[in-house]
Amino acid sequence: MSELLQFLFSGLTVGAVYALVALGFTIIYNASDVVNFAQGEFVMLGGMITWFAYQAGLPLPLAALVAILATAALGVTLNKLAIEPARGAPVVSLIIITIGASVFIQGAAQQVFDKQIHSFPAFSGDTPLRVLEATIQPQSLWVIGGALVVFVGLWLFFTRTLIGRAVLATSNNRLAAQLVGINTNFVMTLSFALSAGIGALAGVLATPITLTAYNVGIGFALKGFAGAMLGGMGNPKGALVGGFLIGLIEALTAGYLSSTYKEAVAFVVILLVLFFMPQGLFGSKSTERV
Amino acid sequence: MKKTLATTVPAALIALGLASVASAEIKIGASVSATGPAAFLGDPEAKTLEMLVEEINAKGGINGEKIELVLYDDGGDPNKARTFATRLIENDEVQAIIGGSTTGTSMSILSVAEDAEIPFISLAGAIDIVQPVKPYTFKTPHTDRMACQKIFEDMQKRGIETIGMISGTDGFGASMQAQCKDVAGEYGIKIAADETYDPKDADMTAQLTKIRNTEGVQAVLNPGFGQGPAIVTRNYRQLGIELPLYQSHGVASDGFIELAGKDAVEGVRLPGTALLVADLLAEDDPQKPVVMAYKTAYEERHNEPVSTFGGYAHDGFALLVDALTRAGSAEPEAIRDALEATSALVGTTGVYTMSAEDHLGLDLSAFRMLEVKGGTWSLVE
Description:
The structure holds 2 protein chains of 2 kinds.
Chain A: H1 2-32, H2 39-55, H3 60-83, H4 91-112, E1 129-131, E2 134-136, H5 138-160, H6 162-172, H7 174-179, H8 184-210, H9 217-231, H10 236-257, H11 262-276
Antiparallel strand pairs in A: 1-2
Chain B: E1 3-4, H1 11-15, E2 26-32, H2 39-58, E3 67-73, H3 78-90, E4 96-99, H4 103-116, E5 120-122, E6 137-139, H5 144-157, E7 162-168, H6 171-183, E8 190-197, H7 205-212, E9 219-222, H8 227-238, E10 245-247, H9 254-260, H10 262-265, E11 269-272, H11 288-302, H12 308-327, H13 332-340, E12 345-346, E13 351-352, E14 368-373, E15 376-379
Parallel strand pairs in B: 2-3, 2-4, 4-5, 5-6, 7-8, 7-9, 9-10
Antiparallel strand pairs in B: 1-3, 11-14, 12-13, 14-15
Helix pairs in contact in B: 2-12, 3-4, 5-6, 8-9, 12-13
């Protein structure tokens, strides 16, 4: 029993990281249909900037805030310099631009920061919490909590706020959105800032567990993308459930079957789900456009 | 990309059969991965080579001849390494090559160097580079098989017979995992649990729980590189596992203690080189002066801690200087013969004694068994 609980804790810890990354994909996707492959780099920047600011003497909360704001600003810059000039281009081209941006950010981070692996102290100490013979790090609760808060925030944003609906409208039909008075340029800028900020937050929360280095972004992006696809791209609920599901499948496979197959099993499940439900678990078919 | 040190002379003239002229210059080629994914290997290697060449030229060179270093950055790409090796031999007309930060790039350079009959000293780990022995290829780093042997030797002393392994699935982890499994039988050690993790994984408690619940496990060995071993060590403490934990030489650095956290890493053992514990070596240790000299010079000049990898380049260059001095000639053939006759040359990695059958020349004494005590490394006697 304690064994199962330990596997579940492991899965929740990892799953929360995936879910946080997956949530970052939703906003830009909802605004523009673009899967932003630089999302993982935002996560990396969140961790790296926090570490360097912390090393420079800032208190940790302030360092984290600096990292989130700086990354959000970088997201806006990315939109202005790379995405906006290519606005007329097909979505596939835009996605390729984000891949290029990802490579660029990684290379720049290697130069601006360094090539070492870093970590900063966990927010609530390192003493593991014991629940029925199983243990979990307090930082895991921060990540799980962070994922839930971001999820609720996004859900309210998209369903309850005018600007959130404007984002969805821009995605549905940019011209029509402009005709009803939505400033679509502003919507794009905002969605990049929010996505980058959420990515950086994920990096800040996860770094005490996962550690950070200039090259961790791609790994985060792939797992987060897998989570978002499994749950249904663009749906915050899907991102949350998808991320946690992949983490849990991996941990249970590693625990009960063999760690050799944990990634294979996770991806087989994703393939099966997408085969029978191409929109993902929570993706709605109504997103098809004419 | 190309950097030349010392005064440039019309080297092409020298190569036209005039190499024995007293004022001639010795040309050494190098292709390392100073940038790209293997930059953590190649960057300190390049810095070390540049520093050592400057040092030796300031002292008047070898047998009165200055050394010119032709250094290329292959970015970890075996195809580029092959191109640079060809360029070093055909255009730069070097007398010997040092380099090949990764096994892949070393294999590329090796084939070119063997064809051209130019001595090549590799800085990469794989045993395949010198086994079977190739006439012109030598290497300085110890192998992961030797690391396994050193660890098992220590386990034997502590009466450990049954272990669990948790290995990274990256090249380093997978290779060492295979070597350890291969060599365990010789030490009477049984591997009862064999788990793996992806180098990007954030949590290994599932695998460790499985190992803990495996009947009879007395110790855990974690072959791995990068952040994986730090996370394994933290999870190990999180689960409260009391068994001895062994890490590999892949994480033998101060950075590892910092990453895993002082409390979590207490009591962890791993095989490391003398370079890591330079200050702890006994005064009469033959490696002490060499290691201290390199460490001091490097840290003063580059303001960053020395790494084992830079040490490989240091030893490669030391082997070459020693061979050139004894050969009294810069003919590739003479350098090769002298390299093979290297005897008791003290380097940072170990003491090298080459032979026609052994182009690595290190034994298990090159590794020191280290244990973390009070947040810092200590030697296990």
